[in-house]
């Protein structure tokens, strides 16, 4: 978990189907941009990461290593050692894409099957909440999150809604588990 100049390094990944907005969410957070997400990011190929420095309330400097994934629907494209290295995972679906919500349990299972469920902090994220064409209600997402023992939050990179809060929620949960 250590990195030069930092007290800790937290490795966090975003998982979910292609097109749900993982790359946009990540870029919005890393840029700290108020307002616009990049209109049309290139589809992510393979896995890449972004870094962001963070100061915890206790004064500790933390380096967040944020891993983007190609949202290939073939879960097995991502190696098990990738999951094992993560301390936090955002499970992202698109509130206007029912199928992406229905795949959440499979993504969760993929991670859990590689490590004990209490080793990694999860957050369920319903993305694109700026859109009015939703087909997943907040309530059913809350229920799924509760049944999987994790929190739930709705985000938008377009209207920059809850982007910082989603990552802050995960990092404080990781910090608490240190
Ligand atoms: P990824 O495949 O999960 O990485 O998804 P992308 O970040 O590439 O986004 C897929 C599409 O959704 C792109 O056309 C984005 O512009 C769009 N998108 C991403 N975030 C949002 C959002 O918060 N609101 C809306 N309306 N569209 C978004
Ligand atoms: Mg992407």
The tally of strands reads 6
Into which percent range does the helicity of residues fall? Answer: 25-40%
Q: What molecules are bound to this protein?
A: guanosine-5'-diphosphate, magnesium ion
Structural class: alpha/beta
Distance between the termini: 10 Å
Query: What does the overall shape look like?
Result: globular
Question: What is the mean predicted local confidence, pLDDT?
Answer: 85
The low-confidence runs, each spanning 5 or more residues with pLDDT under 50, are 33-39
- What share of residues are in beta strands? 25-35%
Element string (H = helix, E = strand): EHEEHEHHEHEH
Quaternary structure state of the chains depicted: single chain
Nearest-angstrom radius of gyration?
15 Å
The largest pleated sheet is described as: 6 strands, mixed
Count of helical segments? Answer: 6
- The spatial strand order of the largest sheet comes to 2-3-1-4-5-6
Subcellular location: Membrane
Catalytic activity: GTP + H2O = GDP + phosphate + H(+)
Keywords: GTP-binding, Hydrolase, Lipoprotein, Magnesium, Membrane, Metal-binding, Nucleotide-binding, Prenylation
Family: Belongs to the small GTPase superfamily. Rab family.
């Amino acid at each position: 978990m250590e990195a030069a100049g930092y007290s800790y390094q937290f490795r966090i990944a975003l998982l979910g189907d292609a097109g749900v907005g993982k790359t946009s969410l990540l870029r919005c957070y890393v840029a700290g941009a108020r307002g616009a997400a990049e209109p049309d990011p290139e589809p992510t190929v393979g896995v890449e990461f972004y870094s962001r420095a963070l100061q915890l309330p206790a004064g500790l400097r933390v380096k967040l290593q944020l891993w983007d994934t190609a949202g290939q629907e073939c879960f097995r494209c991502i190696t098990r050692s990738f999951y094992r290295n993560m301390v936090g995972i955002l499970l992202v679906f698109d509130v206007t894409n029912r199928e992406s919500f229905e795949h959440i349990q499979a993504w969760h299972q993929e991670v859990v099957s590689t490590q004990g469920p209490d080793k990694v902090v999860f957050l369920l994220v319903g993305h694109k909440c700026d859109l009015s064409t939703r087909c997943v209600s907040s309530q059913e997402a809350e229920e799924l999150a509760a049944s999987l023992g994790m929190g739930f939050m709705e985000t938008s990179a377009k209207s920059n809604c809850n982007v910082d809060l989603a990552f802050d929620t995960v990092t404080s949960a990781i910090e608490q588990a240190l």
